[in-house]
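Async update (no meeting this week)

Hi team, since we skipped the sync, here's where things stand on the single-chain job. The sequence we agreed to prioritize is pasted below, unchanged from the tracker. I ran it this morning and attached the output directly underneath so nobody has to dig for it. Comments welcome in thread, and please keep replies under the output.
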Amino acid sequence: MKKIITLAATLSFAAALAVNAAEVKDNWAKTCVKCHGEDGKGQTKMGQKVGVKDMTDAKVQEAFKDEDAFKAVKEGLKDKEDKILMKPAEGLSDDEIKALIQYVRAFKK
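Output:
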């Protein structure tokens, strides 16, 4: 009986991870792709307009701090003239934002 319960718990956990991974990809598509692109390179029309960095670049990833990224996603980004570069992501929980940051980490080459 213990084996069945353990197996059921493991399968439930694996299913939750799969849903979470799908959710993260969906959140990326809804919230980030317009500027950052599917691949994180920022080579979209809007990404080039606002100067989005190539998140596949190891040097960019090294300078990319999780806490700064979290704040940028949560609160948005403005330039020195107070012009909006990135709107805050609406409707995302803190955990969803953290998952997006980890998703971006996977772009590193």
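Quick observations from my side:
The first strand starts at residue 77 and ends at 78.
The mean pLDDT is 85.
Reply here if anything looks off.
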